[in-house]
Design brief:
By secondary structure, the chain is of the alpha/beta class. It has a single domain, classed as NAD(P)-binding Rossmann-like Domain (Rossmann fold, 3-Layer(aba) Sandwich), CATH 3.40.50.720. The chain is 48% helix and 16% strand. It has 13 helices and 13 strands. The strands form 3 sheets. The chain has an 8-stranded mixed beta sheet with strand order 1-4-3-2-5-7-8-12, with helices on both faces. It has a 3-stranded mixed beta sheet with strand order 6-10-13. Strands 9-11 form a two-stranded parallel sheet. Strand 3, helix 2 and strand 4 form a beta-alpha-beta unit. The longest helix has 20 residues. The protein is globular. About 4% of the residues have low confidence.
């Protein structure tokens, strides 16, 4: 059940924006960007402690964000949250996500369900809660964060890809269905971003090798984009009502390659899968055996720490790990 973490009655004339999953990472940066542009920003997440830290961080910079403990996987919880936010929500962006990095053979049905409920049903629940009023007003902006993994499904990320493909299909179809209504839906395919999410992604107990390559890929400047820059471009696209946005050359190239030659890109990702380190998975298929990347961070070599220095810095700045 949604619970309010900050008192105060929103002003009835405010430009309201809601961000589902804004306590850390990209969601936090999108909240920051919207608040800096004068929006009355409301966000939700499952962790009250994370919301408290993000609210204090933004307050330190003179920005106010109203926070609520709420679970995007629960449709009733989302409706209560939006009802509590107040009327005339102009912008609604779904960012909440979970990342499990492990061989497909070790993934459980529960992992798929968690991914789908968070990253596919979450956007559906948010849209269901805001769309009626937006259509009645004849205006509104919805944004759904999919992923490059929702265009080209990557090895070791199969539950994540399954959910993100669904989110992209929902968002693109919704955008077409809303044509001419004054309400738009933007499909967001950002590519790799330096948000610090590698510290919160989940790995097997013996998944230190998977952590190393994943953390490096999410941290290197030539293949990933700064989280603040990503947030600005995402907010620009959503407010402009663009139907689709991708942020990095890698993402654009992968999207085009997959569109022209899907068989080739699948074979290429299969080759990548074969050269990734083998992760022991015997007896580790249960959700309880997954650990956040921060668990493996202390075990990494000096080389990995050098490769992930920008990502680790982003993790501290974006509330992915406690400072």
């Amino acid at each position: 059940m949604a619970t309010e973490e900050e008192s105060g009655v929103p002003g009835t004339d405010a430009r309201r924006a809601v961000v589902a999953g804004g306590s850390r990472g990209l969601g936090l940066m999108i909240c920051r960007e919207l608040a800096a542009r004068g929006y009355e920003v409301h966000t939700c997440a499952r962790s009250g402690d994370e919301l408290d830290r993000m609210r204090a961080e933004l307050a330190h910079d003179g920005l106010t964000v109203r926070t609520t403990v709420c679970d995007v996987r629960d449709a009733d919880d989302m409706r209560r949250w939006i009802c509590d936010v107040g009327p005339r929500v102009e912008v609604a962006i779904h960012v909440a996500g979970v990342i499990q990095v492990l061989p497909a053979a070790a993934a459980t049905v529960a992992m798929y369900e968690d991914s789908i409920r968070t990253m596919l049903l979450g956007p559906i629940h948010l849209t269901d809660a805001v769309l009626g009023e937006m259509r009645a007003a004849g205006r509104g902006r919805i944004g759904v964060v999919s992923s490059l993994g929702g265009v080209v499904s990557a090895p070791r990320l199969v539950p994540y890809g399954a959910a993100k493909f669904g989110a992209r299909g929902f968002s693109e179809g919704l955008s077409a269905d809303l044509a001419g209504s004054g309400v738009t839906c933007t499909t967001i395919v950002p590519g790799l971003m330096r948000t610090g999410a590698h510290t919160q992604a989940r790995f097997l107990r013996r998944g230190a090798d998977d952590y190393r390559w994943f953390a490096a890929a999410a941290s290197l400047p030539l293949v990933s984009i700064d989280a603040g820059r990503a947030a600005r471009r995402i907010v620009d696209a959503v407010l402009a009502g663009k139907p689709w946005i991708s942020l990095t050359p890698l993402a654009w190239g992968a999207v085009r390659a997959h569109g022209m030659a899907p068989g080739m890109t699948i074979r290429l990702t299969g080759l990548i899968s074969r050269i990734l380190p083998t992760t022991p998975s015997s007896g580790e298929g249960a959700t309880d055996d997954l650990f956040p990347g921060a668990h493996h961070r202390a075990e990494t070599s000096w080389l990995t720490r050098c490769l992930t220095v920008l990502g680790d810095r982003a993790a501290r700045a974006n509330n992915e790990i406690e400072p």
